[in-house]
Write a structure and sequence with these properties.
With 292 residues, the protein is an alpha/beta fold. The protein has six helices and twelve strands. The chain has a single domain, classed as Sandwich (Protocatechuate 3,4-Dioxygenase, subunit A). The protein binds 3-methylcatechol and fe (iii) ion (FE).
Length: 292
């Protein structure tokens, strides 16, 4: 068990926000062109309605709060920088996605979902029901065994369910966004057994700060906020005939469980890790809603 990082890691500790931002923007664009849920297909009526409402909300703020040219130009400069740093995915996922998720999942009866965030990658390596996540030989962190079962809301065990897990390394970096990490580091896809059971071997994640050296960091500093998210595991869990759930799980006692910058913590998503020989063991069952 260790939280220290030795010099053998060739990871760039000074990973630049612009780098992960540009990667996140490129990945998002790619996914939108290769997936069914293409961007740019909202009908005219709805765009007219929503865009008018959004523009009016901003104008109301300007008038109510007597916004000055100085403030308007500060906003303009900042918006330009968000684009230059490629941080629109980060900005939107941190400050708005939680409301979209709330709307999207309000009728689910199974496990709670939460936001996906900007760092998901499709197609991580497939592993058996009890496989170990891809990691470096000397990956720092506390070993974690994460086990449970995938079931339907009616209790049926879901044979062959799949679980995708991705999380940051001990320094808070996600593979394929920060430089110097193996392609699939700390990303994997588990195929559950014939009873929907799984036993994931990974590491307990560390508290996480969103990049502070880009436009989002500039806003956080200018407003006197903080950049922390509590330590978290990202999951996508699915089975044929059932709705895929995107969620995150958290660890009790994290100082940022109550003030997550991304507003993505829910009480149902709190784990109960138990110390075991050489690390921690966690149990969590996922419950899926049938396809509508
Ligand atoms: C993350 O790792 C994350 O999960 C979210 C929601 C936003 C920024 C970074
Ligand atoms: Fe994350």
């Amino acid at each position: 068990m260790t939280n220290t990082v030795d010099a053998s890691f060739n990871e760039e500790v000074t990973a630049k926000a612009a780098e992960s931002g540009a990667n996140a923007s490129a990945r998002f664009r790619e996914r939108m062109t290769t997936s069914g849920s293409r961007a740019g297909v909202v009908d005219t009526e709805r765009v007219n309605y929503l865009a008018s409402k959004a523009v009016k909300a901003l104008n109301d703020i300007i008038l109510e709060d007597r916004v000055s040219y100085e403030e308007y130009n500060a906003l303009k400069a900042w918006l330009i920088r968000v684009g230059e740093d490629g941080e629109w995915p980060l900005f939107l996922d941190v400050w708005l996605e939680h409301s979209v998720e709330e709307v999207a999942n309000e009728h689910r009866e199974g496990s709670k979902g939460t936001i996906e965030g900007p760092y998901y990658i499709e197609g991580s390596p497939e592993l058996p029901w009890n496989g170990t996540i891809p990691m470096r030989e000397d990956e720092p962190g506390t070993p974690m065994v994460f086990s449970g079962q995938v079931r339907a809301v009616d209790g049926t065990p879901l044979s062959g369910a799949t679980l995708e897990l991705w999380h940051a390394d001990d320094l808070g970096f996600y593979s394929q966004f920060a430089p110097g990490l193996p392609e699939w580091n700390l990303r994997g896809t588990w195929i559950a057994d014939d009873q929907g059971r799984f036993e994931i071997h990974s590491l307990q994640p560390a508290p996480y700060q969103i990049p502070t050296d880009g436009a989002c960091g500039q806003l956080i500093e200018a407003a006197g906020w903080h950049a922390w998210r509590p330590a978290h595991l990202h999951f996508k869990v699915s089975a044929p005939g059932y709705q895929l759930i995107t969620t995150q799980l958290y660890f009790p006692g994290d100082p940022h469980n109550d003030d997550d910058i991304a507003s993505a913590v829910k009480p149902e998503l709190m784990l109960d890790p138990q110390p075991v020989e050489g690390g921690v063991a966690v149990k969590y069952d996922f419950v899926l809603d049938p396809e509508a």
